Amino acid sequence: MKKVSSFLVLGLFAMVFSPDVTEARSFDGTRATGGVFSPVYHSSLTSYSDSIHNYTSYYEYAEDQWTGVSSEVISSGTGTDTFMVGTTSDANTTGRMTPYNAGGIPASLDGTWATTQSVLFDNNIRSANFTSTNARAVAVHEVGHALKLSHQPDGVNSIMVQGRKNFSAIRAIDRESLINKWGN
Ligand SMILES: [Zn+2]
Predict the structure, then answer these.
(1) Residue numbers of the domain that contains 29
(2) pTM for this predicted structure
(3) With contact defined as beta carbons under 8 Å apart, do 118 and 82 qualify?
């Protein structure tokens, strides 16, 4: 009986304190090109853009945010990472990154990725009245996923937290996660 109650106390202690631990977070596995990513700016970027949202500029900003944080993360090569805009019937999401294996089949998050496709969902970005900063943050977040970064828990000061963000620049923990994944 005594052992049981002390276990419970330890369990509660861990539950209370573990959310404060901020740590680098990424998916396992690798990309066929490692930290080198190679953007393809899809034609949907211009067809969905107007005076409110310039999707090309959002992805250019995202590319710029991550490039060079690790010396292994550079933008180069032959077009492995597609940046695009679309719509979705899922009302709760403003962006999605899907990784693919060499056969063009969606890959597991912890597997080896041959290519990635990042999509910003124009209908939800507009219906939620996203500002350019809010929408730019989605692009940075999805490109972070394309570079193998995973979510940070709510409350952490990170671009990799889910939901609307009123900043779009990557944070210290995001730099740490990228370096932890790909090297200095
Ligand atoms: Zn995400």
Answers:
(1) 25-182
(2) 0.89
(3) yes
For residue range 158-180, what is the model confidence (pLDDT) as tens digits?
A: 999 999 999 999 999 999 999 99
CATH code of the domain in which 101 resides: 3.40.390.10
Q: How far apart are CA 135 and CA 34, in angstroms?
A: 27
Q: What is the 142 CA–ligand 1 centroid distance (Å)?
A: 6
DSSP letters, 143-166, are: HHHHTTB-PBPTTSSSTTBSS--S
Structural domains counted in the chain: 1
- The Cα angle at residue 127 between residues 126 and 132, in degrees rounded to 5: 30
In the reported structure, the alpha carbon of residue 76 is separated from the centroid of ligand 1 by a whole-number distance in angstroms of 24
CA 145 to mean position of chain CA atoms:
3
